[in-house]
Write a structure and sequence with these properties.
single chain; Metallo-beta-lactamase, Chain A; Rossmann fold; six-stranded mixed sheet; 21% strand; globular; binds zinc ion
Length: 450
């Protein structure tokens, strides 16, 4: 078996791996490069393998940096099956359909060509094969595969593959449990080779309990200031997590009723997928669901669909809360709210997720006082708060804990991916020192025989 590293190497986005066995070829994840200076060129670049010859694609989870180049793969001739969990399939199609408009708008602005259109997304509907956690399946003859819950977003999985007498495990993105809705990442039995993410391979998050206090304090303070609380939120998981937490706080009467605008059509649709897959929630969330019936409804919630409704939010006086995408502030409706409100000291910007290098979110997180949004200079007078505890990714101790699962049958090698260079190198060194296993950080396009 041979592996080619085709994305998220020494960086966080663009996840993609190509495997060849005696029976065929498989791609694991096919994500978009995002945020960085060269992202656009990287996405336009040819795959380091032949898309026509790919027999199957296996997807760890529905984040855009893991699925965003599937339509490009289709455009370039791929016609095989796409394997994932049921929730991943539903969220992936919502996300890909949503991205068609975003890519078209961007192409209009820049005069370029969109990477794909709906003619490359809709036919995918025929290719999905959904497989629940912990059941064996054969993506190609002679290959056995299995998904295990990765605890990262709804439907997220780690993957174990076996072919040609060799076994390997892809961590996928690993969750930062315990979190409000999801279960912990599951363990697999060992494998010869492990491919492990390292987004936060060199840091320790604040304890998870701090999330709730952080959100509650910001919400209450904003109500007192009669200000605007802006929450740029990822459509999948983070939005639902925040709605669920606000739901709980209302129940305990810890926060006042303030208009909360969910100004993110994709997040609204994804919330429906969550409602339909309550079987994937952790025990605590299932219990609350049993008594409350709906985890995502809160007093004062307004769901905006159209662009006109989105603009009309500006006419509502504070205090108010606006939850909008994109989570890294490099597109979406959050931009017009930022342009409008960042210059007021009564505005609070709450950063609740990873901000990739090069994104507007990263610059605001680093304290830049002057930013450019929609060709307009904006002076930042708003209070910018961020909470690492909100991360959807395992930190260094949790990544190590997941690797410890394999101690009974140590892998021969751990390839460290999906992390900026410093994080990946530091994590790879820790794997060598603490576990005594071989480890390295592959570069884009590198190939290894397993
Ligand atoms: Zn992810």
């Amino acid at each position: 078996m041979q592996i080619t590293f085709a994305g998220a190497n020494q960086e966080v986005t663009g996840s993609c791996y190509h495997l060849t066995t005696s029976a065929g070829s498989v791609v694991v994840d096919c994500g978009m490069f995002q945020g960085g200076r060269y992202a656009e060129e990287q996405n336009a670049q040819a795959f380091p393998f032949d898309p026509v010859a790919v027999d199957a694609v296996i997807i760890t989870h529905a984040h855009f940096d893991h699925i965003g180049r599937i339509p490009k793969l289709y455009r370039e001739g791929f016609r095989g099956k796409i394997y994932c969990t049921p929730a991943t399939n539903e969220i992936a199609m919502l996300t890909l359909r949503d991205s068609v408009h975003l890519l078209a708008d961007e192409a209009d602005r820049t005069g370029g060509e969109p990477l794909f259109g709906s003619e490359h997304v809709e036919p995918l509907e025929q290719l999905w094969q959904v497989i629940p956690y912990n059941s064996d399946f054969a993506p190609i003859p002679g290959m056995r595969a299995q998904f295990a819950d990765a605890g990262h977003i709804l439907g997220s999985a780690s993957i174990r593959l076996e072919a040609d007498g060799k076994s390997l495990i892809f961590s996928g993105d690993l969750g930062n449990g315990p979190v409000p809705l999801l279960r912990h990442a599951e363990c697999f039995v060992g494998a010869d080779t492990v491919i492990c993410e390292s987004t936060y391979g060199n840091r320790v998050h604040e304890p998870g309990q701090q999330r709730e206090a952080f959100l509650r304090d910001a919400f209450v303070q904003n109500a007192k200031n009669r200000g605007v609380l802006l929450i740029p939120s990822f459509a999948v998981e983070r939005t639902q997590e925040i709605l669920f937490q606000l739901h709980q706080m209302h129940k305990r009467k810890e926060i006042p009723v303030v208009p909360v605008f969910l100004d993110a059509p994709l997040a609204t649709n994804v919330t429906e997928v969550f409602r339909n897959h309550a079987e994937l929630f952790n025990e605590e969330a299932k219990q609350v669901l049993g008594t409350d019936g709906d985890l995502f409804n809160i007093p004062g919630l307004h769901i905006t669909e159209t662009a006109d409704q989105s603009r009309a939010i500006a006419e509502v006086p504070g205090p108010k809360v606006i939850i909008a995408g994109s989570g890294m502030m490099n597109g979406g409706r959050i931009l017009h709210h930022l342009r409008h409100y960042l210059e007021f000291p009564t505005t609070t910007l709450l950063i609740v997720g990873f901000q990739v290098e090069g994104s507007l979110g990263r610059r605001l997180h680093q304290g830049e006082k002057r930013v450019r949004i929609h060709n307009q200079d904006v002076t930042v007078r708003a209070q910018v708060l961020s909470c690492g505890a909100y991360s959807g990714h395992a930190d260094y101790p949790k990544l190590m804990q997941w690797l410890h699962c394999f101690q009974g049958r140590p892998p021969r090698h751990v390839y460290v991916t999906h992390g900026e260079l410093n994080a990946a190198l530091s994590f790879s060194a820790s794997v060598q020192e603490e576990l005594g296993w071989g480890s390295s950080v592959p570069s884009f396009g590198s190939q290894f025989s397993l």
